[in-house]
Structures are given as structure tokens and as C-alpha cells.
Amino acid sequence: MLIARTLAELRAGCTELRATRSALALVPTMGALHNGHRALVRAAAESGATVATSIFVNPLQFGASEDLSRYPRDEAADLATLRAAGCHLAWLPDVTAMYPPDDVTTIDVAGPAAMWEGTARPGHFRGVATVCAKLFGQVRPDRAYFGEKDWQQLQVVTRMVADLHLPLEIVGVPTVRESDGLALSSRNRFLDSDQRRLAPRLYMALMTAVETLAKGEPVDDALSAARQTIEAGGLAVEYLALVDGPTLQPLQTLHRPARLVVAAQLGSVRLIDNVAA
Ligand code: AMP
After folding, report:
1. Which residue's alpha carbon is nearest to atom 12 within ligand 1?
2. What is the pLDDT of residues 70-81, one digit of tens each?
């Protein structure tokens, strides 16, 4: 696996990968890699592409009160994970490579970025869209892989790529979960054992709501029951909604493709999840 830490090393590495004549796939990550990230790298490799993975904890997508400084970092373990998962190039830029001092351009996506995470974390999607546009320009991949775990992010990036006519395809990969349903996340390590026991309620409540909706029950009733289940476990619901899959607009009745999206606070840990409805 090639390792690039500067733009010059990245350019040389990408030239080498392109010489293989296979498609080039990019998996953007913030490191602290787990089986969810592995699934993205594997999906990219199994598509026949050569795979570049970026590891960059992007300051622009963290709010002032958020957990940038405590975001877990373990480069040696991440590189071992990437090698084992079939990654061909690891791109490990520093902050000045991504945001040089004379940098003045950011990207604001409206539409799917407006609500939910967009409201809860002002500026978050500006950070995501901007860093993704930079990574796409640096690596110039044919495809980029994103997890459905961050459903809204997947839709925001897909919208940006369409609107800016960027020459790549965005591929979504299903959420990888623990056996009890908890979606894998780098932040799960901050849950203590009691919180870890309660956290799968989020997914359980979503799945029960999916069943209720499929039986034709009113959306409001299904959402209130799910909210009660979640809050009975001591989680504080930030938002819980049935939305149109691509636009994230709230739905009062079930129209497919629909998604149930949720964010809840459990102690100091903010959990998000979503499922198809
Ligand atoms: P992050 O490092 O948290 O920025 O995530 C990098 C990529 O991995 C994003 O596209 C995430 O959606 C994806 N990802 C994170 N957790 C999971 C998961 N449990 N299952 C599938 N993809 C995931």
C-alpha cells in the first residue's frame, strides 16, 4: 500500500494507480477505522477498482462546541486495517495541505443539507461538502464510497456532485451494525457499559416504526411510539422524522423511497442512525 502525506506524494501515487488502468475509487474517512469503514474499502475493491482511502479529521465540519480534540486517532492501527482490507493508497494530508492559509472557498449545499444534521450542527455540511470537493479534486476518483450510516451526508455529497457536474459517481454502502443492531461508529467507544446496553434502542425503535408504518399506521403515531421507546432508555431525542430519501424533506405519509432518521444524545455521546422505511 502506498502512503501519501503531501500533495506531491499523492500525485505520484495516483499516477502509479492509474497506470493499472482500473477505475480509481476513493473512500473518504476521518480514521479510527472500524468494520463500517472496512465495508466501504471492500466494496470499492470488490468493484474491481484500485482503492485510495483518505484519513483526515476535518476541522471545518466540527462546530466550536464539538469533539474535534477528543476525536479518536490511531494512524498505525488504521494503516494496518487498510492494508488488510485491500486498500492501495492511503492519503494522510495535514491541515495545511487541505486548508492552506490563502484558502477562501467553501461550498454550501442547500436542499438536503438544510434540515436535521444541518440544523443541529450549523456549518457541518459546509465542512463536509468543502472537504469532499477538495478530496475529489486531489484524487480525481471515478467513484467515491460513502456509508448509509450518514444518510444525509450521502445525499448532500450526491447532490453536490450532480449540481457541480463533478466527473465521478457516488456509491452508498449499507450500514454495518453490531449483532444487537447498534450502528458502528468511532464515537461508540465513549459509551460506558450501561450506555452501551441502552444504545441499541435507537435501532430497535426505528425497526418497530418501519413495521408499524408498513401496516399503514399514521406517521405521527409511529414516530411518537418510537420516540417513547428511545426516551424510556434515557436517550434524549434531538430529532426523529420520516423523510424523503434523496431530499430529506419530512413526509406526513409514507412515500417511497423514504427513510427514518434519528439523532439522540446518550450521556456525552451523540448517536445518529437511519433505516429505509
Ligand atoms: P467517518 O470516518 O465517520 O467520517 O466515516 C467515513 C465513512 O464511513 C462515511 O462515509 C461513513 O458514512 C462511513 N461509515 C461510518 N460508520 C459506518 C457504518 N457503521 N457502516 C457503514 N459505513 C459507515
Report:
1. 147
2. 899 999 999 999
Ligand 1: which of 146, 186, 272 to mutate, most ligand atoms within 8 Å of CB?
Answer: 146
pLDDT of 61 > 90? The answer is yes
Nearest Cα residue to atom 11 of ligand 1: 147
Separation CA 147–CA 128 (nearest Å): 14
248: left (phi over 0), alpha (psi -120 to 50) or beta: left
Class of domain 186-276: alpha beta
Q: What is the pTM of this model?
A: 0.97
List, for residues 177-187, the tens digit of each pLDDT value. Answer: 999 999 999 99
Cis peptide preceding 257, ω within 30 of 0 = yes
Question: Given strand 269-276, what is the order of strands in its sheet?
Answer: 236-244, 258-266, 269-276
pLDDT value at residue 66: 85
What residue ranges do the domains of the chain occupy?
A: 2-173, 186-276
Q: Collapse the DSSP code of 12 into the 3-class scheme (helix H, G, I; strand E, B; otherwise coil) and give the result.
A: helix
Task: Return the HEC string of 75-86.
Answer: HHHHHHHHHHHC
Distance 221 CA to ligand 1 centre (A): 31
Q: Which CATH superfamily is domain 2-173 in?
A: HUPs (3.40.50.620)
Tell me: pLDDT of 152 over 80. Answer: yes
